[in-house]
Amino acid sequence: MERLKDRLGVIVNSGFLHVFGSSVINKFIAFLSNVVLVRILSKPEFGVFTYAWNIYSILYLLSGMGIAFGILQLTSEHSGDEEYAEKALNYGTRFGTFFDLSLVAVILFVGLFIPLKIEASRPLLIALAALPLLELFFEIMTAYLRGQKKHKEYSRLVVLNTSVLFISSAVCAFFFRSFGLVIGYYAAYLISFLFGTFILRIRLIRSKLPVFDDKRAILKISVTSMLNNASTILMYLLDVFVLGIVIPQESLLASYKVATLIPTALTFIPITLFAFFYPYFAEKKEDREWCLKRFKQILFWFGAFNIVLSAVLIIFAPWVISLLYGAQYLDQITAFRILTVNYFFSATFRYVAVNILITQRKLKYIFVLSIIITVLNVVADYFFIQCWGTIGAAAATLSVDTLAGILCAVYLVYILKKPNSVSA
Question: pTM of this prediction?
Fold first, then answer.
């Protein structure tokens, strides 16, 4: 009992409960928001928004060239050095803002001039064009807070963002339909930016600071992390994108999107784990014995948890979909079950292994693997969808994500058992 009490004390004092609690609240609200929005909008309306949001999300993967990841990694490695963190924050914000201004122009260009399979989504895409800047500022703020282990402030900011997004999206969608969702996103990120700036006093840009000397390091980490993150998220985004090309039907897109909502929402669990653990793995990146031991512990306990969770969702899939989203979405039960299996492999192996590999600076491996996995996913999506429709889209994601997870986990164990390995 004394050992248990001591361990619980360490967990409480470390701030894990702030990170875990805020992430649970955050994802529960986001999940509830999806349920409410699916009920408010008609199936065609939800399908049109899904198509526009999917194009936006694919382009947004390039946001800031992943600079928020670089800020998180370097401020974690220099934990406690506030001056270094301020310099990284200042440089990262300037670089990211400059890059995202060009991203705004690209989204506008696509919305105005590129032919779209579902033309009704064009006004929505144009309306979303300025959102990348506000999203970028939010991501940089949360990365800075995580790197500095300011867990309480981090939890306040993310819960505020999701809460405002839920309320504003639901209210505006009720009155303005799919355009209301766009208004909700702007409101949430603008209020979060103001809260971070004036309440948490995070100054993203400072005029008088010493020169940041690690520009090359932060950009290298940022680009590699961005590609890895993109290859992971693209699994679902490319499914919808290719599905919209091969079978451009609003109702079908809406149905498949609903099948992805719960498996996608569940990713908050591995994200929560590494929102807390990432700075510690970054700090102890030279202690490979410690990293390997913790990796095995996480793999065992987290894997056992994910098996139980996935099994429950697969068994009760018809009741879950019908209860949350309505009987009109029951046509995607098989796709939902396949994507639930994919969650198990992706969360248990790929997400955990990749984040530790990044702390080990194994960036070349992740970079090459991300490109290969993305190409494989596009090819698999195209052929599988033509053969099996939405089931093919889910099967493509499962196949490619499982392969990536195994390759990452095996390579991580290899480099952690090799004391003289050189970071790439």
Answer: 0.75
